[in-house]
Amino acid sequence: MKIAITGKGGVGKTFIASTLMRLFEKNGFKVIGVDCDPNPTLALAFGIEEDIVPLSKRNDIIEERTGAKPGTYGNIFKINPKVDDLVDKVGYKVGDNITLLVMGTIEEGGEGCVCPASVLLRRLLRHLILKRDEVVILDMEAGIEHFGRKTIDTVDLMLIVVEPTKKSLITAKRMKKLANDLGIKNVGVVVNKVREDDKESLKEIIKEELGLEVFGVVSYDEEVIKCEFSGKLINLDSKVVKEIEEIFNNILNLNTSA
Prior knowledge:
The chain is 36% helix and 18% strand. The chain is an alpha/beta fold. It has an eight-stranded mixed sheet, sandwiched between helices. It is globular.
């Protein structure tokens, strides 16, 4: 199962992604979590505060694999670099069966950038999605920029995380259109930071406005705020995680062959 978690900035993508990673591990799966954000925070969700240099900034590995030094132009470089060992080489263990890859993004050259770093990152993402047996969860950068690089068009599921705001809903509409343009077959919604009284009405609004399946509704919970502030993992027996467990179960029941 290969899952991309996306949405507007600040909606709670990383919390949803990291909790799903833990639930998959708890249920016997091996998991690769991929932080694709230019401001990587997925490691922080596991209480790891040390700086992890993103692969996009690992000039030594980029040059080793592509044969070209990053930042130089006009050079010939490999367009199919070796990537199948990079999970073990640069992956960061954050659980018994969870490996974290901090990818970063390409900040120069625009969406059409063809440079050694972009080639390596795209090649690795393709390898993770198409070749690996583990569950792969992509914590995407905020917004819709990643769609321009066609990095997630072969995922089994794209989950759009929204919060109860108009801006979040508008962004989700744009993401749905772009996901359809890319041919992503399974697109769903997770509604986060919701008051108890608003849950049912928000489900109906999402279905009406987006025409997408709601995989789960997650309550606004002060405990989540405290854990994120302190860098501690939230208890898997907590109420909010039980709600995310519903999302996990819906993912397991998804027919990816449809």
